[in-house]
Amino acid sequence: MFSFFFSSRLKRRLCSSILKLSSASLILSLVACGASAPTETNSKVSNGLKVVTSFLPMTLFTSAVAGDCATVTALIPPNLGPHDFQATPASISSLREAQLLVKNGLGMEEFLEKLLTSANNPTLVVIDTSVGIPTLEPSVDDTHDHNHDHGVINPHIWLDPIRAIQQVESIRDGLVKADPSCAEQYKRNSELYTQELQKLNEEISGQLKQYSGKTFVAFHDFAPYFAERYNLKGEYIVDLPEMNPSPADLQRVAVKVRKSQLKALLSEPQAGNRSFNALANDLGVRVVEFNPLETGSIDSAREPETYFDVMRSNTVNLIKAIGG
User: Fold this and answer.
1) Which of 89, 95, 302, 318 is placed for a possible disulfide with 119 were both Cys, Cβ 3.0 to 4.6 Å?
2) Helix spans in the chain (H)
């Protein structure tokens, strides 16, 4: 089904890729979360460009563009998200040896500043895929008493397929500049992948057209770009998935749910908040999954088409939530 953007050679490479999760016993005090080590996503490449990606969406996009021309290593293993990452000596080693680092930007990878200082790689080129992309402010009311948030700009741009196209194009341009010898393959792979992103956007637009203006409710504010793209309204309880909602947060959302006659609330697979589940139970609605792609399985991280599978599933579940 997804042979559309891969050459037969690239398909064989992806199918035979082995993700290797390095281990390190020494934990650096760079971030206060869980220990993790880099994951190599295309171990067949031995002499090409060395590229490190920050987390799952950047890994999927970069692997699609890089093909056989570059070694792509995920700094954060796919089973961990940016909020759960803690650096190890292997993390620093990967950055020290890399030529390129691909990140989402917009504050999503706050841990990188200290990590890059420790890696001390003056020749490392950082590709910030958010540059030039229209952004949105956080959706949760700033008057709520939360300890921290994503900052003044919501970072979840990859959940809008059109903005994802811009991210892929930024990755392409960075790879071409760093490795002109593979420029044609980077350009071709990017073209095929972005064509499929455009088709995905058209597909989702068609499915959601009849729900234009409808409201959905999610636990944390991961979907404002998706909502904007498809003319939906999102209501979110908290800024970050690890936050605990206040009684005022839950009351505010309960009012929205009753007014909008929602059938379900959206929660990401990484989150399991008791207050959110209790709210759904009190309101007599279900909880369905909308996967923001911040984490995934090792198998899913092997294949760039994972993005399309997840986004299609998200659309189906969203329709269930808003009454389809």
Assistant:
1) 95
2) 8-16, 56-66, 89-97, 112-119, 161-178, 183-208, 224-229, 247-260, 274-283, 298-301, 306-321
Mean pLDDT throughout 2-26?
38
> Angle at Cα 232 formed by Cα 228 and Cα 235, nearest 5°?
95
Whether residue 56 contacts residue 25, with contact meaning beta carbons closer than 8 Å, is answered with no
Using alpha carbons, list the distances in angstroms from residue 239 to 124, 137, 208, 267, 310. 32, 11, 25, 13, 22
Question: CA gyration radius for the chain?
Answer: 20
Write the DSSP symbol of residue 259. Answer: H
Q: Are residue 127 and residue 223 in the same domain, yes or no?
A: no
Say yes or no: 17 and 157 in one domain: yes
User: Euclidean distance between the first and final Cα of the chain, in Å?
Assistant: 26
- Contact at 8 Å (CB) between 190 and 149? no
Would the pLDDT of 147 be above 70?
A: no
Residue 285 · residue 322 · CB < 8 Å: no
Quick one: what percent of the chain has pLDDT higher than 70? 80
Structure confidence at residue 3 as a pLDDT band (50, 70, 90): very low
Are 191 and 299 contained in the same domain? no
CATH code of the domain covering residue 315:
3.40.50.1980
Give the integer Cα–Cα distance in Å for 277 and 262.
15
Residue 21 sits in the same domain as residue 117: yes
* Residues 226, 162: Cα–Cα separation, whole Å: 10
pLDDT, tens only, 47-62: 689 999 999 999 999 9
Domain hosting residue 241, numbered range: 205-321
- In total, how many domains does the chain have? 2
